[in-house]
Amino acid sequence: MIIILKPDAAEAQVDALKEEMAGRGLILQEIQGEETRMIGLAGDTSHLSAEAITRHSFVERVMKVSEPYKLASRKFRPQDTVVEFPGGQKIGGGGLAVIAGPCSVESEEQILSIAREIKLSGAHFLRGGAFKPRSSPYAFQGLGLDGLELLKTAREKTGLPIVTEIMSAEHCGVFARDVDVVQIGARNMQNFPLLREVGNIGKPVLLKRGPSCTLDEMLQAADYILVEGKSPVILCERGIRTFETATRNTLDISAVPALKKRSHLPVVVDPSHGTGHWDFVFPLAMAAVAVGADGLMIEVHNHPEKALCDGQQSITPFLFDRLMQKALKLHEVVSDRGDGKQESHGP
After folding, report:
1. Model pTM greater than 0.70?
2. Are residues 109 and 146 in the same domain?
3. Residue 287: how many other CB atoms lie within 10 Å
């Protein structure tokens, strides 16, 4: 529900209304448009009467939000969310943030070597799995907390913020202290108790789309995190499961503009998981930039043929350097293409 205020609404009256709504257990979101001031209400609004609210002399009208998600909705926040980091890195706001690194942390030498090379190529964040959710119980499961320590060492040596996946709520305290961006993997996108716990960490959360989930379901999952009020969310399209077998997943490039139309949250694309083939990563990364993605997540390994996890979709540091050069040039071109509105030329 969105309450649209009259231009001459007195601040004391607005504050009293906000206090009343908060007292009903609702989450409030101030929305300031160019000419209109609004208050978004999230939570159980079924007990609220729109007619009763409009009886206030300072209320213009009440609009109900039909989408099942609220806090992630662009109606609640018309302006784009920009997630900023202490080192000056940003995700959202018109730039192209690049997250790169191996699928899993294997050794100190491996993660340091890759971190140094991707930084030289212009990457902004280092990714690496300490805990690895694998389909087979016999596959490499990651180094766990030891892997997280190696990521911290790489951050100390390179200055790159680290992105890594959380698997269990029991590690929330460690992630809150040690990790810069907490990743929720595709398998856990609808693990609602974990989403709520992560929402209290106070660190940005990279939410990956589930392999069989709609965009509305993804945004509802984002609301589970946002409703806690402490952790901003970054959405990540990483491919969905379809009948096609030529690629590991079907990378839904159309999800980028569709999500941006629905939501204010930044959108990152992972063409590595989206295709499952290293030689498809380059063209799909370019496609993601072309449709307006706020960032890329690329798997990079110095010896893909020896990788303990997902070597078939990892590119070498040399190819990553080429990808960065092309992606940044393309981003310069597409970021100056206008706001996407159609002009009316008349008859």
Report:
1. yes
2. yes
3. 17
